[in-house]
Amino acid sequence: MKRSVPDLLHAQEPLVMVTAYDYPGGRHAQGAGVDLILVGDSLGNVVLGYDSTAPVTLGDMIHHARAVRRGAPETFMVVDLPFGTYHTGVTDAMRAAVRVIQETGADAVKMEGATPEVLEVVSVLARNGVPVMGHVGLMPQTATAQGGLKVQGKDEESARRTVDGAVALEAAGAFAVVLEAVPARLARLITERLHVPTIGIGAGVHCRGQVLVYHDLLGVYEGEEKKISKRYAELGREAREAIATYAREVRAREFPTKEQSFVMKDEVLGKLY
């Protein structure tokens, strides 16, 4: 049964969230029994091949979220509002959020940051019945302004900004807050101060939930494992090896075999000569 916002707020066990970007990913996540699916704008990096999330459009998010919803109709689905859709005022943000909810069947939207402008948007959306998940710490949409993809909250100023941002997001009406790439002790302090769930990624074990990127946890891409993630499979290596085996069999005329071929009666074939 799909979780609701009250369910998530009162969950006793740690919440499990995973990203998904298409129909198979949605099916896999729902079949595994996760609590939430995030259709993240990280699809720009892992699906569309961009260097950052900045080029991802609202149309991209809606397109992918529709596919995920078809694969996971009974899982609480959060959709990122991409860069630029909530930075130009409440009216534009409300319009983008309504499109996402109406056109994808999403249960909530997510946005990064805790500036006064973002907090105003969170407040207006929440008051108008649109559940909002906040996000502090490392914020990929504006990582360049943060000095790159770096851990946040290691010095007093950054730590205080992260704590204050999370508290302000809760006060504005966010039903949960993602903490990305912050020290575990800072994430614990924030979690203890908030009444809403914290969802960690690279933020230690004391958050009230965790999120991982589908492609990272399944090892879709080979190479060095990310600090904030953990691989539970090596699908990238297995896929490469499987395709290489297929190519070898084709070139050796070992595929297809009789098992993959269809037959016809001799008399029918004879009439064709």
Give an account of the 3D structure.
The N and C termini lie far apart (61 Å). The model has no long low-confidence stretch (mean pLDDT 95). The protein has an eight-stranded parallel β-barrel, surrounded by six helices. Strand 4 (108-110), helix 6 and strand 5 (132-137) form a beta-alpha-beta unit. Helix 6 (116-127) packs parallel to helix 7 (156-172). The protein has helices spanning 5-9, 23-32, 43-46, 58-71, 90-104, 116-127, 156-172, 184-193, 214-217, 235-251, 266-270; strands spanning 15-19, 36-39, 76-80, 108-110, 132-137, 176-180, 198-201, 209-212. By secondary structure, the protein is an alpha/beta fold. The protein has eleven helices and eight strands.
Q: What key attributes describe this structure?
A:
273 residues, alpha/beta, eight-stranded parallel barrel, 41% helix, 13% strand
Give a nutshell description of this structure.
This protein has helices at 5-9, 23-32, 43-46, 58-71, 90-104, 116-127, 156-172, 184-193, 214-217, 235-251, 266-270, and strands at residues 15-19, 36-39, 76-80, 108-110, 132-137, 176-180, 198-201, 209-212.
